[in-house]
Each structure stands twice: as structure tokens, then as C-alpha cells.
Amino acid sequence: MRVAIVNLGKIVSGDWRNPFAAGDTIICDDGGHIVSVGTASAAEVSSCDVVIDADGVTAIPGLIDSHVHTTFGDYTPRQKTVGFLESYTHGGVTTAISASEVHVPGRPTDPAGIKALAVAAFKSFQNFRPGGMRVHGGSIILEPGLQECDFREVAGQGVWLAKAGFGAVQTPFDYAPMIGWAKTAGMITTVHTGGSSIPGSGAIRAEHLVAIQPHVSFHINGGPTALPDKDYRVIIEKTSAALQVCTAGNVRTTILCANLAHEMNVFDRFIIATDTPTGSGVMPLGMLYTIAHCASLTTMPPEWFVCAATGSNARVYRLNSGFLATGRDADIVLLDAPGGGSKSTALDAIKNGDIAAVCAVITDGVPRFVGRSRNTPPSIRQVRVAECRVPRDFSA
Hints:
Layout: E1 3-6, E2 10-12, E3 20-21, E4 25-28, E5 34-38, H1 42-46, E6 50-53, E7 58-61, E8 63-68, E9 75-76, E10 81-82, H2 84-89, E11 93-98, H3 111-124, E12 134-136, E13 139-141, H4 148-156, E14 161-164, H5 175-184, E15 188-192, H6 206-212, E16 216-218, H7 230-238, E17 242-246, H8 251-263, E18 270-273, H9 286-297, H10 302-308, H11 311-317, E19 332-336, H12 346-351, E20 357-363, E21 366-370, E22 384-388
Parallel strand pairs: 1-6, 2-7, 8-11, 11-12, 13-14, 14-15, 15-16, 16-17, 17-18
Antiparallel strand pairs: 1-4, 2-3, 4-5, 6-22, 7-19, 9-10, 19-20, 20-21
């Protein structure tokens, strides 16, 4: 189906250096991609199967939660909750990236089992999209006994994520050769950062990250226990790792990291995630909360943090989503100021520390709901389906 979104008040591009796109219309093709961002003729709009009247709200790329503890299906054994991923779409999350299937009960730790778990999780989410969300499952968990050939083997099956921090290594330095093998196999490598979070994990600090050199320092603000403050400059200066801050971490160090990333001119490396479900719980609005915390407690503009949760994640993880631009995946969220608040636009509300109202979520060019999220406050404007030529109900 072709979808047009018209009467937009503002379009956030996903690129923090150039955060706004001009125009008031986005058109998506029937292949799940954006074909135009800006303006469109009446004929182009009328050729679409669905036309959404945005009533002046703000369009942003779908949020990319780059730290979700998926298992199998839409279920978390950590919190015994069914349907949490589908609920996250009502918080504007259109992509979830596995932080490894470490919470699978009785997870295997031998090489054959480790590989089987990663491949099975990867392949299962190729065929399952809860709430329309795209889930990148299957992250191989680094354990002693894995060899370089094992990484080539699972990469050949499609697995492209590798996670260090929960293996039975003698010291975190022992992850370094395995991270190197994963990189050689073309994988994105991630490392637990901070204090121990579950039995079997250990503290990983700046000196370990310098030796390991991963692509992403997971929950650098604490998962949930933060590093010593002095470690942050070391990590920025002596690694190229993305600086992932998470909702289920230390808020003070979240702001510390945001300010340091700006001060040290590495804001490209600053990315936002939730690190849920964990002991901190299921948090459908976690991405929106962290965006609002960062925007309201720093001097930086709110659109930068929207981009840190979208386009910056997409760059780090090599995804085609995260940007509102021609050819990108048509994952789009419409936001507005919440009713009853003191602000009149979504970005002003975020800067004020409020949770924006999610008015619509589109993934793969398909509207998943239009009107109101079941998880956020109501909007002050009325986003609606103005025209529909397909037999679908897009209400929440």
C-alpha cells in the first residue's frame, strides 16, 4: 500500500547535524520505503491508498532501541510478561536490537549450544514482527571455547551481533581475541559496561574497553551500576566505541556522558537505548523518557536526542532505518505535545521534560495505529486517516 502523511508541522530527519527536513509531506511506497520527503502534488497524494492528516504534528524516524533483552517470541521470562514488544511500538519503537538472549532459561554455554541459540533467535525473528516492529534477534554470547571458525559459521547463517560480558572468562581482557574474530566475521560487537548485573557477569571498566575495542559500549551510564567518572574520558579518547546510554541506568551519568560527547566533539557516537526487560522491568516508554531526560537536563536541543535514538543508532548498527529520507525504510512516528501540558509542540514538550504523545506509528510503510497510543498521554491535535482505499482499520 502507498501511504501519504500530509500537513506535518515539522519533520525531524534523524541526522543530528542537520536535524530538520523541509516540507510537510512524506510519501511511502508499497515496498516499505520512503519515496519522498518534503512537498507533494495533489496528484501524488491522491494516488496513495491511505492518506494520514497529521494536523501539524511532528514526524520523527521510528525509534531504534539498541538494547533489548529478547528471548523467543513476544515474551520476557525475566519479568514474566507477554506482549512487551508489541507494547513498545506504542512507545514509538519500530526497531529492537537484541542485547543477546542471555535471559533464556538454562541458556547453553558450550560452543554448539551458544551457536544454536544465536542462530535460532536470529531466524525466528526473521518471521515474526510483534506489533509490526522489526526485531534483530540473535547475538552470539562470548564464552571460553569459541574459536574463530565458530564466528564465521554463525555469520554465514546471518547472525551479525556478538556480545561480551556474560561469559565465564578469567578476566574481561580474555574477550579481546573473540571480539577480534567477530569483527573479522563482519559482526557488530558489543560489551557490557559497568558493574555486574546478573550472576555470572563481572565489572567491565575503561581499561578493559581499551583492550577489547568493541563497536558499542553497552549501557555506558550503568547497567545499572555506573563506571567511575574518570573512566568516561578514557573511553572517549582511547576507543572508538559508541557511547550507549540506557533508561535502566544511572541518570546522573547519562547526563555526564551526553555533555562529554558534546564537549569532546563525539556526539555521533552518543546513542540511546533502554536495556530492558531486566530487573528494572518492562518499559514501553523508556526511549521517550531518556530522550526527555537528556533534552531537559542539558543545554542541547531536543532534536539532537531524537536523532541519537534514531539515525545515530542506525549508523552504528548499519541499518537502513532511522532517517526520514528517500530510499530509507518507512518507519515513521508522529509525535505531539501531550494534552494538559504547558507546551504546544512535541519538541518543546520534550525539552520541558514531558513525554510526547505518540499519535501514529508506521513500520514498513504500513500504519500500525493512527490516532492515539495506548501508552502515552493524548495529543493536543487530531491525527486521523483522511482517506483510505484499503479494507483496514488503523485505530489503536
